[in-house]
Amino acid sequence: MQQLHHFINGQSQPGDSGRNAPVYNPATGEQSASVSLASAEETRSAIAAASTAFPGWSNTSALKRSRILFRFKALLEKHSDELATLISREHGKVHSDALGEVTRGMEVVEFACGMPHLQKGEHSLNVGTGVDSHSLMQPLGVCAGIAPFNFPAMVPMWMFPIALATGNTFIMKPSEKDPSAPLRMAELLAEAGLPPGVFNVVNGDKEAVDVLLTDERVEAVSFVGSTPIAEYIYSTASAHGKRVQALGGAKNHMVVMPDADLDQAADALMGAAYGSAGERCMAISVAVPIGEQTAERLRDKILERMATLRVGPGEVEGQENDMGPLISRVHADKVIEFIDSGVEQGAELVVDGRDITVPGHENGYFVGATLFDHVRPDMRIYAEEIFGPVLCLVRQESLDEAIALINAHEYGNGTAIFTRDGDAARQYTTRIQVGMVGVNVPIPVPMAFHSFGGWKRSLFGPLHMHGPDGVRFYTRMKAVTTRWPDGLRSEASHFTMPTL
Ligand code: NAD
């Protein structure tokens, strides 16, 4: 059985807490590894390593820091297949989807490579007579990142490339369910030339996280995960004087207008609802067709496409599956329980994914693609985040009704509208209370040079991830005002070449 360690001060470090968690292959249900869970003391030793590395790293020129990230990016490209295999094995998503995640993370590294330009301050000459002002964007110190299971490579890369490029040192706490990809990235960073202690990986659970939230040497905490934990992270770390960005759960709606290209909308829904088995914070879990006719036609088109959906393991020879297993037995059972509740509360179960069997993978954590129609807002399958391959149709009569419905939901991460009507799209994008909006784009994840974040209970804290907000999050502004007394200008001739 493989034992997964921590990565502290530039090297792999075996855990000594005596606590471990099993890591499973979700496609087979077999345990593939055991991961050390750090004690409070081990977590503090990682903070000490990061604190010691901070003065040297923050004083390294921005250009040298970025050159290390350039080398890291080249190593990511070289090892992307290997990283995708690690992700598929522990998370379950299909290989091409895992490769896509590595690419989206790598784009943040590319953005961070431009930090010498992004971290330039501003300068004003003569703000008063003989007085100038300039600003510095300085790193904070030791920063921590806490990641969810669903993007084991991309979400850490939303955080650490920008933190490191701006001169901070970092402690990553990956999900204990799939820690291999972040551990491999720590090795690649070291290979790229990152000095020891600048980037550390501490594996663990609440015990390690609580130290990161309260230790006075940690200056900032970035978190991505479920809303109850995001709220806990935000309130605890803020109460301990830290800067916090905590991204939470989601329930993303896609409005389909009567004038939309319904084939395009149905195609988009397949990937957005069932890709990665619905375990994406930007997955569409609610489709909102406007009008009965749109609803009937859209439902037929979804059903046609669901009939050919391939469910199976993430790593296969030959033709790839569309959708893999869920992360754990516990989570698969929770999704099935949600489906049960939908039936009990009176929704129409059009396609039932509860009893799927994947030949050769009978113990895998598979739940088939599921479709509910006539879902009402008071049902649990609508109100709560399921985080599985379950799509709900909530029929509405008008765009105004749809906007009111979505604005009343507690989450506001992502949303989309499918239409050919510019006015409907304009109304929607301006009135909807959601952080990321797509127009005929089902999963509107902003590129690395824009910022990613939801509204309402999908994000706690003012700053989003990566892009310009990421640079602001990991730097502190300092305004410097200078006035110099008159210099010795008249005596400068002493230094010129004497001539006759
Ligand atoms: P989770 O909240 O269970 O865990 C996230 C991290 O918090 C893990 O590293 C875990 O070890 C740690 N953690 C868990 N319980 C804790 C506790 N009591 N105290 C301290 N730390 C704790 O989330 P998950 O199941 O790994 O991920 C799925 C969730 O993440 C979904 O809700 C999904 O919507 C959300 N998510 C959101 C975004 C976004 O951008 N908003 C992106 C990806 C995932």
Could you give the topology of this structure?
Blueprint: E1 2-4, E2 6-8, E3 11-13, E4 20-25, E5 30-36, H1 40-58, H2 62-78, H3 80-91, H4 95-113, H5 115-118, E6 123-128, E7 131-139, E8 142-146, H6 154-165, E9 169-173, H7 180-191, E10 199-201, H8 206-214, E11 218-224, H9 227-239, E12 243-247, E13 252-256, H10 262-274, E14 284-289, H11 292-306, H12 329-344, E15 348-351, E16 370-373, H13 380-383, E17 390-393, H14 399-407, E18 411-412, E19 414-418, H15 422-431, E20 436-439, E21 455-456, E22 459-460, H16 467-473, E23 475-483
Parallel strand pairs: 1-5, 8-9, 8-11, 9-10, 11-12, 13-14, 13-19, 14-17, 16-17, 19-20
Antiparallel strand pairs: 2-3, 4-5, 6-7, 7-23, 12-22, 15-16, 18-21
Helix pairs in contact: 1-8, 2-4, 2-7, 3-4, 3-7, 4-6, 10-11
The chain binds nicotinamide-adenine-dinucleotide.
Description of the molecule:
It is built from 16 helices and 23 strands. It has two domains: 2-248 and 458-480, Aldehyde Dehydrogenase, Chain A, domain 1 (3-Layer(aba) Sandwich); 252-439, Aldehyde Dehydrogenase, Chain A, domain 2 (3-Layer(aba) Sandwich). The chain is of the alpha/beta class and 500 residues long. A seven-stranded mixed beta sheet has the order 15-16-17-14-13-19-20, sandwiched between helices. Strands 10-9-8-11-12-22 form a six-stranded mixed beta sheet, with helices on both faces. The chain is 38% helix and 22% strand. Helix 3 (80-91) crosses helix 4 (95-113), helix 3 (80-91) packs antiparallel against helix 7 (180-191) and helix 10 crosses helix 11. Strand 2 (6-8) and strand 3 form a beta hairpin. The relative contact order is 0.14. The site of nicotinamide-adenine-dinucleotide (NAD) has 27 residues, from helix 8.
